[in-house]
Design brief:
Elements: H1 15-23, H2 30-40, H3 47-59, E1 62-64, H4 72-83, E2 97-100, H5 102-112, E3 118-123, H6 133-145, E4 150-154, H7 157-161, H8 165-179, E5 183-187, H9 196-208, E6 213-215, H10 227-244, E7 249-251, H11 259-272, H12 288-303
Parallel strand pairs: 1-2, 2-3, 3-4, 4-5, 5-6, 6-7
Helix pairs in contact: 2-10, 3-11, 3-12, 4-5, 5-6, 6-8, 9-10, 10-11
């Protein structure tokens, strides 16, 4: 990925310069944004397109377990499901990644070795991000040392909301460096940013700092991914590529539970940024419960009937 900072050297030279740039971004028309997101969500998808969309959505899932009760056995079972979501149908695509805490990354890496399914690890004192930079960097290095292909970091929302944008920028840059070759997903926790203007500013801040992905949420708060906040972030990555030539991925996370939801988000991608982003390298779903519904809908399209309650495994 090209270095972004020189393109924005003046912008990131001081807190005031960065604030001036971010607050100079066009204001978000909330009514228009929500109306467009709602309109795109009503698009009908025909059967053949629906089958394609379901397989594409499965291939874009970061299958996730982020609980205090996680065990090596649970992580290995999740990895097995990522590799073969439907053991009865080998044509079912694997998921994009398995996402775990850093102490479980080594287990996931071993279970997925040679498969092409990535191992993502949350870091930087996920989900609150309330820790020193030294702790956040150690967290990141531990995950990378364990073999993680991707790092999902959280920004310091307190610093961002207080207007300390340069601090947030420098933290992202430091984590990016600590992540090395691992791709970096920067989580904004959009439900805590209060306004669409703040989400647009956070999107640009993350991309200027070198994010490979921008991600809506941790899935640990009341408001997570919505069509409107994801549409706003898609518009940001589109505009960023137009300005810099650099493509950045988008990951909505939390609250996406049904195939119908997933298809709505894929329509948002197609209509906003186009086919270049319709690939797991550039778009992900952070929504593990979504997989089971996708599998049941996939079977319905294949056989004409819904399966029984035991058709899919419970995560």
């Amino acid at each position: 990925m090209p270095t972004i900072t020189p393109l924005f050297a003046d912008v990131t030279a001081s807190d005031s310069a960065l604030r001036h740039f971010l607050h100079g971004l066009p204001g978000v028309d909330a009514v228009g944004l929500e109306a467009r997101a709602g309109s795109l969500g009503t698009r009908s998808i025909k059967t053949t397109a629906k089958a394609y969309a379901i397989d594409l959505a499965i291939s874009m899932i970061d299958l996730t377990t982020l609980e205090g009760a996680d065990t090596p056995g649970k992580v290995r079972a999740l990895a097995a499901k990522a590799l073969r979501p439907d053991p009865t149908d080998r044509t079912t695509p694997a998921t994009a990644a398995v996402c775990v805490y850093p102490d479980m990354a080594e287990t996931a890496v071993a279970a997925l070795a040679g498969s092409g399914v990535k191992v993502a690890s949350v870091a930087t004192a996920f989900p609150a991000g309330r820790a020193s930079l030294a702790v956040k960097l150690a967290d990141t290095r531990d995950a990378v040392a364990a073999g993680a292909d991707e790092i999902d970091m959280v920004i310091d929302r307190g610093a961002f909301l207080a207007g300390h944008y340069l601090k947030v920028y420098e933290e992202i840059r430091a984590v990016k460096e600590a992540a090395g070759a691992a791709r970096l997903k920067v989580i904004f926790e959009t439900g805590e940013l209060s306004t669409y203007d703040n989400i647009r500013r956070a999107s640009w801040l993350g991309m200027i700092a070198g994010a490979d992905f921008i991600k809506t949420s941790t899935g640990k708060v009341g408001v997570n991914a919505t069509p409107a906040n994801t549409l706003l972030m898609l518009e940001a990555v589109r505009d960023f590529r137009e300005r810099t030539g650099v493509q950045v991925g988008v990951k909505p996370a939390g609250g996406i539970r049904t195939s119908k939801d997933a298809v709505k988000f894929l329509v948002l991608v197609n209509e906003t940024v186009g086919a270049d982003w319709l690939d797991s390298h550039w778009f992900r779903f952070g929504a593990s419960s979504l997989l089971n519904d996708l599998l049941m809908q996939r079977q319905k399209l294949s056989t004409g009937r819904y399966s029984g309650p035991d058709y899919v495994t419970v995560d």
